[in-house]
Amino acid sequence: MIVNTVALEPYLNVMFNKAYAGFIENQKADYMNQLYTVVPSTKSEEKYGWLGDVPTVQEWIGDKDVAGIKDYDYTVKNKNWHSTIGIDENELEDDQHKMIEPRINQMAQGASTFPMELVAELIRDGDTNLAYDGLAYFANRTVNDNLLAGSGVTLANLKTDLATGRTTMQRFVSDTGKLLKLKPNVIVCPPELEVQFMELINSTAPQDAANYNSAGTNPWRTWINAVISVPELTDTNDWYLFNTTMPLKPFLYQVRKSPTSKMDESRRFINRTIQYGMEMRGNAGYGFPQMGIKFVNA
Q: Which stretches does DSSP call E strand in 11-164?
């Protein structure tokens, strides 16, 4: 079979775009996607100096009160990302297109989940990486302390700490001291704690009366929407609470250029290989620290 590279690139692009669109559609219900806000970018970097400005309603007496809002110097720089495969000319000459399609699909799947990978890394490194206020995202702040000591990882410990985290987050305030009235609805944990949390959240039988209210029901089944197991988390006893119900989520995913596929056959004469890949540009960053709490267990 003669390799027609003029027709090959559009053929591969259709394959990639169809697969990518399918993966994006399937992931809409994934709670990991609900941890971040997608923000369009038009420059090499974007400054989020407004992050401390949480709009609240107050009585209008005299001039409108806009004082107390700081201009934070929090910037997210866009980065270039890619995924590339080599297609041997022999595969095309032998009409082995079905050998190529799984690799294209895998590339599309990787592009669709990449924002979640960046967010997972931000969670993992959140007690060292800085948020908009110049402190680590998870830090012992004087106000809005969101780095808490856990009591352990038994069911009883987790139940106690869940209650502590829910109470703590509800008392978080804005930069101007206004109560944000946030409530955690998502648990993020390492795989080692997933079973314990699923048992605690989804249990319907009163195996442990301490996990239930006076009506004999499990309140966490209503309060917590999802338990997300994240393999990137290396501290196997530490876990997190997040609020994902607000317009601005705990994390930001900044998009400068969406995944775009292209082909390069410049080295075909040298090694019979046609390169095909995906390129994208963007980055992830931190949103409001008040929307997350980390529990640290020794």
A: 36-40, 45-47, 75-77, 79-88, 147-149
